[in-house]
Amino acid sequence: MEREGLCHHQPIGYNNGAIPFDNASGVQELARLVGQARMDNGVPFPAGTPWVLGVFSQGGIVGYDFYEAYLAPGKPLAWREADRLGTLAYGNPCRGTDSIAPWAIGQIKKTGTHGLDPYKRYGAPGCPALPPNFMDDYREGDIFAENGDDQASQLKASIYQAVARGDFLSNPYGVITELVHQLPNVISSNIPALITFGISVFQAIVSGIVFLADQPNPHYSPYDISGGLDWVRNLLS
Questions:
Q1: Model confidence at 158: pLDDT above 90
Q2: Which of 12, 41, 44, 169 could form a disulfide with 174 if both were Cys (CB 3.0 to 4.6 A apart)?
Q3: Distances, alpha carbon 166 to alpha carbons 41, 161, 162, 187, in Å
Q4: Taking the model in full, what pTM does it have?
């Protein structure tokens, strides 16, 4: 679209190789770029300039955190929100429940799912509502963008919380907290509860193995981005 003369493309550089994830570095860089009146390449970016945000995978976490901290009403860059034409998200761990772009509905069978992030999702309790013109594109089986609410799903979310948020102790989604919750069952030899927990652990592990082994991979394999490009092109036209 830049070649078509519709926009200037501005990549967001951040530390995306850290474990736990260094989401803050992406949020800070995004805030720096969106908050300035001229891009680093000299392109003017004054107040009132329309813009579109595109995110993928960990970028969806950065995008959510940026919106919550900077673009939401009353936040430091809320004045830029009026000029945001839309956001296009692929494989978004912060996807709100049942958020799906119209062109992607045909590739999804399950309903009632949401992103893997257990605390920070659009529309979740205590979180911002899904902003206007926000499109989520993901594929069936994408463990980051498609999660449920059963115990196996909660265990997957706890592992995510440790890796993506550096949180091991929060209740109820810290990995250590999950294990501590099982101690009374171990002490009291509550076999049915332990069996249920064991099955959930097994299901979470199998889900992760299947996800990593899937080819094409529902998260990492190249997307057909034609639907997203058409949507953004219409926004910019």
A1: no
A2: 169
A3: 34, 6, 5, 29
A4: 0.86
